[in-house]
Amino acid sequence: MRKKVIMITGAAGEIGQALVDEFTHNDGYTLLTLDLHALPAEMHGRTIHIQGDILDKTLFSRLVTEYEIDTIFHLAALLSTRSEFAPELAHQVNVNGTLTLLQLAAEQSQRRGEAVRFIFPSSIAAYGLPDLPTKARDFYVREWDWNYPTTMYGCNKLYCELLGAYYSEHFQQLARTKPIMLDFRSVRFPGLISAFTVPTGGTSDYGPEMLHAAAKSEPYACFVRPDSTIPFMAMPDAVTALLKLWHAPAESLTRRVYNVTSFSLSAAEFQERVRHAFPEAEITFDPDVQRQGIVDSWPAGLNDKAAQTDWGWRPAYDVQRAFDEYLVPNIRQRYAG
Ligand code: SER
User: What are phi and psi of 329, to 5 degrees?
Assistant: First the structure.
C-alpha cells in the first residue's frame, strides 16, 4: 500500500521551513518534502526529503508509485526580483513546475477517488497599479481589482491561480462523466517577514533586510523611497493562513483565491520600528529605480474580508505584536553572541 503523505515543495525556502516546523509540532502527518537544496540540519529526520527539481517529471512519476499524496503545499518559486533577471527560467519554474504538479494532483484525485488539496501561495505581485495616485486612492485592493501585474513573477502567480481554478472546476469538461477534481486553494500574501530566515530574490525584501541588518549592527541602504508602502505579515501568520485555508470545509469557500494581510507600513515607518528596537541602526535610503517601480505597482494594502468571512482568517500579529513579541526578541536572540 502506498504511504499517505503531505507534499511540500520549496521546503528549504522561508515559508517551507516555517511550515515544516509547525507541522512537526503536530504529529500524525508524514511530510514528503522536495527542494533543489538539502534541508537545514535542524530539520533533518522530520520529513522524507527529496533533493530534486520540480521540473523533473520522472521524479514525480516515481513518487506517485510510492506515495499517496493527500495534499500539496506548492511553495517552490523564483521570487520577483530574481525572476526579472531570469524571466524564462522563472516561467519554467513558476508556471511549468506548477502545471506539472496540478496535472499530477488531478490524476491522483481521480486515482484515489478523493480530491487532492492543492495549497498555493500567491502574492501582492499579482496586482499592478498604474500610478501612485491610484495606489493611494485604492488603498485596500480587492481580489479582482487591478489584476495587471508588471513582473514575470506576478504574471506567473496570477496565471497559476487561474490554472488551479481550471483544474478544480473545468478539467476534462468534455468528458461524459465528471471526474473527481482536485481542490485548489490560494492565498495572496503581502511581504512576509521571518525572524529566523531572510528572503532571497524578492522585492519586499527591504523590510526584513533592514531589520536583520540592524540586529547584526550592519548598515543598511534601503532600495526604495521612504514613502513606499506595501502590506506585510509576520511569518507565523503566513503559516496559520495556509493551514487554516487547507482545513476549511469546501462548502464554506466562495472563492479559490483569497487576499490575506496583517499591517501596511511605509519604508519610513518600517525604519522607525526598527530604530525603536535598535536605536544604533544605520539605515539610509538609496532607491533603485527599477525595484522602486515594482514596489510602486504593488498595492498599499489588501482587502481580506472574504478570507475573514469564509474561513475565519485573522492575523495573530498586528504591527505592534509582530515587532515586540515575535520579530525583535527572536532576531535579537538569533544574532546574540
Ligand atoms: N515577497 C515577494 C517578492 O518580493 C512577493 O510575493 O517577490
Answer: -60, -40
Total domains in the chain come to 1
What does the pLDDT average to over 34-57?
Answer: 95
Residue with cell 474561513: 311
CA-wise closest residue to 263 among 199, 315, 226: 315
pLDDT band of residue 79 (cuts 50, 70, 90) is very high
CA distance 143 to 251: 20
Q: Is residue 64 part of a domain?
A: no
Most informative mutation of 194, 205, 259, 262 for ligand 1 (most atoms within 8 A of CB):
205
Q: Distance of alpha carbon 204 from its chain centroid, rounded?
A: 12
| All residues at 6 or more sequence positions from 336 whose CB lies less than 8 Å from its CB, including other chains | none
CA-based nearest residue to 100, from 123, 118, 121: 118
pLDDT at 1: 84
Ligand 1 atom 3: residue of nearest CA:
202
Domain membership of residue 6 (yes or no) is no
pTM for the full predicted model? 0.97
Q: Is residue 42 part of a domain?
A: no
Pocket of ligand 1 contains residue 190 by CB under 6 Å: no
Nine cell digits for residue 230: 506595501
In the reported structure, the alpha carbon of residue 295 is separated from the centroid of ligand 1 by a whole-number distance in angstroms of: 10
CATH number at residue 132: 3.40.50.720
Which grid cell sits at 88? 524564462
- pLDDT per position as a tens digit, 218-272: 999 999 999 999 999 999 999 999 999 999 999 999 999 999 999 999 999 999 9
3-state secondary structure of 284: strand
Decide if 233 is inside a domain.
yes
Q: Is 79 in the pocket of ligand 1 (CB under 6 A)?
A: yes
Asked if 323 and 277 touch (Cβ cutoff 8 Å), the reply is yes
- Quote the cell numbers at residue 262: 496583517
Query: Which residues form the domain of 116?
Result: 77-334
